[in-house]
Write a structure and sequence with these properties.
Layout lengths: L4 H10 L38 E8 L6 H21 L5 E8 L11 E2 L2 E2 L3 H6 L26 E5 L5 H13 L10 H6 L7 H4 L8 E8 L10 H9 L11 E7 L9 H6 L7 E4 L4 H5 L4 H11 L7
Parallel strand pairs: 1-2, 1-6, 6-7, 7-8
Antiparallel strand pairs: 2-5, 3-4
């Protein structure tokens, strides 16, 4: 659904401290900025259970100041790979990909304090170009997967070599860089991976039936995604319809503490899929990062893998 200027402006206004969010009928929500209703996870339908695949999507902020955080994520990643290979059933197929928080190649100037941006809604709107509006060809931008060493995602199998996956991601994560838009649109970066306009790049990454989806967000600034967490949730979950939607999705985030509140857009989005995300502090050490992207997350993925409908 293309966005007009009015729609973007209305969404941004609804997320401001002074605006009251409107639902589809125009009535204010109980909380001015919380726009995602609680999701009740349905039990799986009768029949065989067990995943055959896991798709892991990292949304990595590529704005200035992110390089040290990208390097800490890269250092933590091998622990996550080992945990996934050890906990998941043998012969589970893995896809690992990266997208970014950037939706423009235009110059940006924006500051923030206590998770409140200094940019006006009009300015953010001018720096938010969805792939259906135009393709700016930025590697990893607008919901496209980040191409590294000729691959937009890495394929591995738990019965095979884990070291190649470690090498690819530990090089790819910092290669995302920190020279892109300071108007970070983290939720949008995840959601637009599923957009038909990105199908040419992202084709084959997300599997539906029989596949667990893992979303991990890494950012050190508040999310300026202007369309609202409900919209981004709905965009993403449609790609997992056959599997059971929310039931097949796990989320995690390494975020600044001020972005961990119930009113924060990215925190809302990560909580929108029916189970609480695994959350950590962006200013932590590599060891702290492994508490998010490590055995605990792998254990959650493994348990979910055992409880989703198996493909035919």
């Amino acid at each position: 659904m293309p966005l007009g200027g009015y729609g973007l402006l209305a969404a941004l206004t609804a997320c401001s401290d002074s605006g009251a969010a409107q639902d589809d009928g125009g009535a204010p929500d109980a909380d001015p900025r919380l726009d995602v209703a609680a999701v009740e996870l349905r039990p799986p339908p009768p029949g065989p259970l067990g995943c055959r695949a896991v798709d892991v999507l990292f949304m990595i902020d590529n704005s200035p100041s992110m390089r040290p955080k990208q390097e800490r994520l890269a250092a933590a990643f091998p622990t996550f790979v080992d945990a996934m290979f050890d906990r998941l059933p043998r012969n589970t197929d893995l896809h690992v990909g990266i997208t970014t928080s950037s939706f423009t190649t235009m110059a940006t100037m924006e500051g923030h304090a206590d998770c409140r941006t200094s940019a006006t809604p009009e300015y953010i709107m001018s720096r938010y170009q969805t792939p259906g509006m135009l393709n700016n060809n930025e590697n990893g931008g607008q919901g496209r997967l980040f191409r590294h060493e000729g691959m937009v995602f890495f394929t591995a199998n738990t019965s095979g070599d884990r070291e190649a996956l470690k090498r690819w991601f530990t090089a790819a994560a910092p290669a995302v860089g920190e020279r892109s838009s300071s108007v970070e649109c983290s939720s949008a970066g995840v959601a637009y991976v599923t957009d038909p306009a990105n199908a040419g790049v992202n084709q084959g990454f997300i599997r539906d039936l029989g596949a667990v989806m893992v979303i991990v967000a890494l950012t050190d600034e508040p999310d300026k995604s202007p369309e609202g967490a409900r919209r981004y949730h709905d965009l993403f979950v449609r790609a997992k319809e056959q599997c059971g939607g929310d039931r097949c999705i796990v989320t995690a985030g390494i975020l600044p503490p001020c972005a961990m509140g119930a009113n924060e857009p990215l925190y809302q989005f990560l909580n929108a899929f029916g189970r609480p995300p695994t959350i950590g502090d962006i200013e932590g050490t590599s060891m702290d990062y492994t508490r998010v992207v490590g055995d605990a997350l792998a254990r959650t993925v493994s348990e979910l893998c055992s409880n989703i409908p198996a493909p035919p």
